[in-house]
Each structure stands twice: as C-alpha cells, then as structure tokens.
C-alpha cells in the first residue's frame, strides 16, 4: 500500500500517542544540535546529516554528502530505534527542503514504506502550537531488518550524467536556486555554474507562500508540463550535494509520479571533475 509522503501538523497530533511513532529532527547547520537541545518537537530524536546520513570523504569522489554504505545505514537505523514496524515522521527547519527529505529518500530506498515528512517543518508546527521540549531524546535501540542489500530507489553516477548531457532524450534537473544555477553566486562549492544542458526547477517552487507543499494536483500539473512526457528513467535530479534534490523527489512522490533518478554527487562532485 502506498502511504502519503507528507503529513500535516494536525494529522501528527492525531497519531502522537501511537506506540510505533518515531519522530526525527534532521535540521542542519553548525549549531544544529545545540538548537535541537534548546527546543524540538516533543519526543523528536536528533539525526545528524554529516554522520548519520552521509559518509563524508573527498567531495571530488561522490560530492559533499555521499550516501553511507547501505549496511552502515541499516545499523544507524537500529541505533536510532527504528524497526520495520516504526511509523516514522521526519522534520527539519527548512520546510523539509534539507536533510528531512534526504532521510525520507534513504528510508524509502531501504524499503521502509511508513515514512512521512512534516509539512512546513519545525516552524510551521510551532505556529500551530505543537508541543515542544528540550534536552536530548532517544528511542531504545532496535535491529533493523531489511530484505535488501542495496539502495532500492534509482540513482545515477557522474559517468551516467556525462552521457545524459549529450543525449536530448534525458532531462537533467538542477533544483538549486536560480542564481546558483546561473553561476551568479556560489556560496558553497569551488566553482559557480551548472551541469551542461541541465534545466533549472528550483525546489522552492514546490512550496506555497506559507512554506507548505503545493497540492498534489498543482505539483502534478507543473511537473508534467516540465517533463514533456519523459519516463522517469530518463530524468535525473541533482542539487549541490544530493540533499535538497530529495525535496523535489518528495514533491514528485506527493504528486503521484514515479521517483526519478537521483545524482547524489550533484554539482559538488561534477564541478570538481
């Protein structure tokens, strides 16, 4: 059964007493853990992008946030207290546009179906008076059993992207803000610009003026027009380091599309090669 990939604050309130509910705070930034300790949604456990959701090495090989080894991620899920029966809800402080969507993609890619991202993230939940707490929360450790040995959602690598840049049947989608795509500014990576023949569909276009996901119907119409009848296997999404691109994959799942290819290395890897 396909479960919706987005959950609203009022829906989270309704299931807040479910025994299998596990809530995770995946905000990022240099003071992310400190901010989490000051205030987070009730019972939420902190997840670190750099250590739990990536295995950082040389950005030239895999980008700034390459995926961890599949087996290591399975161990991480157990340490976080997630098992096959867990009802997982994820949020961050950027409308799910940062590590919240990345964690969602990774859980879906190990075969975990019951995982949703909180619409509007931390700020919107607070504005709706959702209960908050402080300190460091945790869930009892479990053992996560996956029937798979490798990631189950489609990915491509730098050589595949190079081929796609020279094949008009492919659509390479850059979800960074337009100024980074155009090479006007580059606050993170060494070189400004974009992958040849990539088209820009900023992740922010998935959201309305309140920072909530647009309706599935609106998103479906916008992306259907953009895709021009391409199959999902001919579509590649990327961003700076394979994190924010997952926000657009989340939006596509929300809108009823098959999840297309993710290029995890993204501009951070491409620009260094």
From TrEMBL:
Name under which the protein is recorded: Sulfurtransferase
Keyword hit for Repeat: yes
Alphabetical list of CDD domains matching this protein: TST_Repeat_1, TST_Repeat_2
Keywords: Repeat, Transferase
InterPro entries, per database record: Rhodanese-like_dom, Rhodanese-like_dom_sf, TST/MPST-like
Domain Rhodanese per the UniProt entry, residue ranges: 17-134, 166-272
GO MF term set: thiosulfate-cyanide sulfurtransferase activity
């Amino acid at each position: 059964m396909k479960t919706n990939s987005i959950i609203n604050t009022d829906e989270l309130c309704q299931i807040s007493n479910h025994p299998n509910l596990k809530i995770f705070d995946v905000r990022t930034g240099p003071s992310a853990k400190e901010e989490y300790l000051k205030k987070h949604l009730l019972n939420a456990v902190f997840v670190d992008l750099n250590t739990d959701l990536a295995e950082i090495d040389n950005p030239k090989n895999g980008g700034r946030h390459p995926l961890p080894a599949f087996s290591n991620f399975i161990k991480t899920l157990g340490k976080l207290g997630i098992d096959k029966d867990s009802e997982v809800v994820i949020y961050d402080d950027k409308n799910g546009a940062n590590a919240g969507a990345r964690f969602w993609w990774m859980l879906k890619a190990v075969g975990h179906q019951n995982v949703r991202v909180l619409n509007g993230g931390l700020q919107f939940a607070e504005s709706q008076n959702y209960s908050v707490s402080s300190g460091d929360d945790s869930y009892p450790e479990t053992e996560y059993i996956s029937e798979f040995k490798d990631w189950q959602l489609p990915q491509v690598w730098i050589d595949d992207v190079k081929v796609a840049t020279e094949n008009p049947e492919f659509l390479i989608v850059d979800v960074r803000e337009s100024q980074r795509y155009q090479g006007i500014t580059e606050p993170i990576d060494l070189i400004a610009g974009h992958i040849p023949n990539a088209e820009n569909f900023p992740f922010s276009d998935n959201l309305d003026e309140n920072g909530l996901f647009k309706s599935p119907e609106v998103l479906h119409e916008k992306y259907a027009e953009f895709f021009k009848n391409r199959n999902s296997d001919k579509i590649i999404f990327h961003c700076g380091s394979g994190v924010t691109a997952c926000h657009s994959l989340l939006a596509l799942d929300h809108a009823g599309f098959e999840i297309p290819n993710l290029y995890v290395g993204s501009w951070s890897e491409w620009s260094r090669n």
